[in-house]
Amino acid sequence: MIHQLSGTVASLSPTQIILEVNGVGYGVAVRSGADFTVGQTVTLHTYLAVRETALDLYGFSDKSGKEIFELLLSVPKIGPKSAMDVIGKSDTRLLIECIQTEDPSRLHKQSGIGKKTCENIVIALKDKIEGMPDSDAKSETATSFNSTQADAIDALVSLGFDPKGARDHVRSKENEKLTVSELVSSALQ
């Protein structure tokens, strides 16, 4: 098993990087929207998925991301690609919080993940999430949105915004105490 790789980013695409380690380029699938730059030195915690026709590496910047990924693999009908898609669409704190509160509809609304998949995730992981590094942590940047913020996120998603982008925009404006229409208007500018 390959548990960790440290090297230089040789090239990148939205969901994969080529990580050069001692002259060998490893193709590593990463979460969509991950911030990497060519020439950057990184250490990735990796998961090696062995299939009949391929060996696929999945990389995570932190250990908790890999742990969430492995938990998602225990959910029926979720394979490595689907688990990476869930991680790319959802914030880790949102995922953990929705599992703990057993709220699949909130996870669906705020992440854009399919409704049935959200239900399966919550049901399968509600007893397994305890002890996760982020499961006890609450900070100012936690994804607990008030009703105004949640309504603004819903409105932005219905207007075609990416759910993660909508959450990030609302989170960036949380100190300004704006109304729903003001949050939506600021995103449209």
Topology:
Layout: E1 4-13, E2 16-21, E3 24-29, E4 41-50, E5 55-60, H1 63-73, H2 80-89, H3 92-100, H4 104-111, H5 115-125, H6 147-158, H7 163-172, H8 180-188
Q: Can you walk through the features of this model?
A:
The chain has 189 residues and is of the alpha+beta class. It has eight helices and five strands; from the N terminus they run βββββαααααααα. The chain has helices spanning 63-73, 80-89, 92-100, 104-111, 115-125, 147-158, 163-172, 180-188, and strands at residues 4-13, 16-21, 24-29, 41-50, 55-60. The chain has a five-stranded mixed β-barrel with strand order 1-2-3-5-4. Helix 1 packs across helix 2, helix 4 (104-111) packs across helix 5 (115-125) and helix 6 (147-158) packs across helix 8. The protein is globular, with a radius of gyration of 18 Å. The protein starts with a strand and ends with a helix. The model is unreliable at 135-143 (pLDDT under 50).
Search tags:
189 residues, alpha+beta, OB fold (Dihydrolipoamide Acetyltransferase, E2P), DNA polymerase, domain 1, 3 domains, 5-stranded mixed barrel, 42% helix, 20% strand
